[in-house]
Structure formats: C-alpha cells, structure tokens
Amino acid sequence: MQSYTIGQAARLLGVSPDTARRWADAGRVATHRDAGGRRLIDGRDLAALAVEVGQGGADEDEPSYTSARNAFPGIVTGVKLGDVAAQVEIQAGSHRLVSLLTREAVEELGLEVGMRATARVKSTSVHIDRV
Length: 131
What we know:
This protein is an alpha+beta fold.
C-alpha cells in the first residue's frame, strides 16, 4: 500500500500542510513514521479522509474566484470493475470526479484505492462561476 507524507497528503486534499498536520494530531487520520522519522499516512486512510473532506463542501466564509483547470490531481477513492467496463472515482481536494473507462485500462494502469492519480477533463462546454 502506498503511503503519503503530510505535505503530499495536504496537496491531494487541497489544504495547507499545517492543516493536514493538525488533523493528524487530532486523530482525524492515522499516521506512522518511516525509517527517517517522517510522518506517513496510508493511502486507504487518506482516501477515506479525502471523501470526508470532499463531502464537507467549501468554506462559505471564504470567497471563491476560480476557473476550473483541466487536470485534477487527487487520490483514487473507488474502483468498480465490470466484465468490460469500469468506474473510477477520484477525490481531488473538494472535487469528486467519476470516470467510466474500460476494465483493461484500469488494469493496465494498476489503479486501486489509495493511489495518486490525475483526472483530466476535455470539454466543449466550460462554465465559469464567480462566487
């Protein structure tokens, strides 16, 4: 199972390293230390936290000025394999992305819950919101 440093986890969750560290200190996510003394989070635990954070929604006290980019780096939070097709779910910060692709593609990429992955979106219709 892949593990992530506090800094890597923070980037995948869309929060600061200080916030990720506070969450770990508060027991919101379990950590362990590597041989070098760095705190690590198991991929499955990080995936569960990413789903929890994503369901919390945006902080309504902070204004949001965004134009969504086409690449969403995140963590795989779900993989459902069918006979021919597959569904992969990625939590990228507060964004949950679901992709339908072939089972063969999922197997070739070796996708599993807890892995880092990037969802790329190509669209002919893009909406821009300013809140």
